[in-house]
């Protein structure tokens, strides 16, 4: 047993492993348990809740179930909220839950109460799991939790999880990968940063790391980077940055697994469907319960430090990225814009990023295109 405990300690401890497993359970459509002292709750994702599971939860809940929703979704329901809250669920009514959690024009139908710390941990666990941020909570006894066979995660471990993953970030593989226009390129793969996912640092043209180097933090965009989607300028930004670095002394391009501004691919597609109905990119995320940007960039700074980078020329339109690298102790020598081609499908998206998230995007270009109203 002592050997087993030493293995757990080396791998981050049993509590953190329990969070890993809880994330996997929720993504697989199964519930998990969160514990805080003597309090235990079963957490079930709304997006995977089926009638059979709802019946089982209702039998356990005995009228004490609740639906937890984040502040953006509550505001969409007509409530002035800056904090998440919960609706009481005397019965686990799937139609009512779907309306409150997802329906575009829905309005609140009952009072909303503040969340306890254990409920907030449930929302954080959903965020880590990249599922819709809406959950059914059922309080259970310690005995029922022990007999359930479900994974049990500690509230404190859920809140500490992301920070620990930054500390545990490590290189797990590297190799030369010649690119078109940048044949002298190396890919360095890190594990950590955002849960169980991998992150990639792409070193282009052997930059001199003792000097300020060109750096871009690029969040993965499957639709834009791989398929050339016209809805964004991500693919252009990625390829134009790599080309610029190859022609200007090299650089480091961090390719970060943060699809959909940290919401995950499935939620990004949900947001795209709402955009097709007339919502802008940020309103669509709010309908789903997300803040304007779920990403963090502290682990990106750690990646750069592990590579030996200390001074950077940041290639970005996003002031949040610049501030994050500076807060992490990197020397920001300069910053420059990276803007892709505009078209009828992405110009509103670019204008929204400028107007609602403070991205530094050329007003004249947008105005000239005819899609910006000052």
How would you describe the overall organization of this protein?
Helix content is 43%, strand content 21%. The protein is α/β, with parallel strands linked by helices. The protein has two domains: 2-163, DHBP synthase (Alpha-Beta Complex), CATH 3.90.870; 166-369, 3-Layer(aba) Sandwich (Rossmann fold). A hairpin with an 8-residue loop joins β8 (170-176) and β9 (185-191). α2 (14-27) crosses α6 (117-129), α6 (117-129) packs across α8 and α12 packs across α13 (281-288). The chain is globular, with a radius of gyration of 22 Å. The model has no long low-confidence stretch (mean pLDDT 91).
Mean pLDDT: 91
- By CATH, the topology of the largest domain is Rossmann fold
C-alpha-based Rg, rounded: 22 Å
Highest CATH level, the class of the largest domain = Alpha Beta
Enumerate the strands of the largest sheet in spatial order, edge to edge or round the barrel.
5-4-3-6-2-1-7
Count of distinct structural domains: 2
Derived from helix and strand composition plus strand pairing, the structural class reads: alpha/beta
Distance between the first and last residues' Cα:
67 Å
**CATH architecture designation of the largest domain:** 3-Layer(aba) Sandwich
Largest sheet: 7 strands, mixed
The helix count comes to: 17
The fraction of residues assigned to DSSP E strands is: 15-25%
Which outline best applies? globular
Helical content, roughly? 40-55%
> How many strand units?
14
Q: Are there runs of 5+ residues with pLDDT below 50, and where?
A: none
CATH homologous superfamily of the largest domain, by name?
GTP cyclohydrolase II
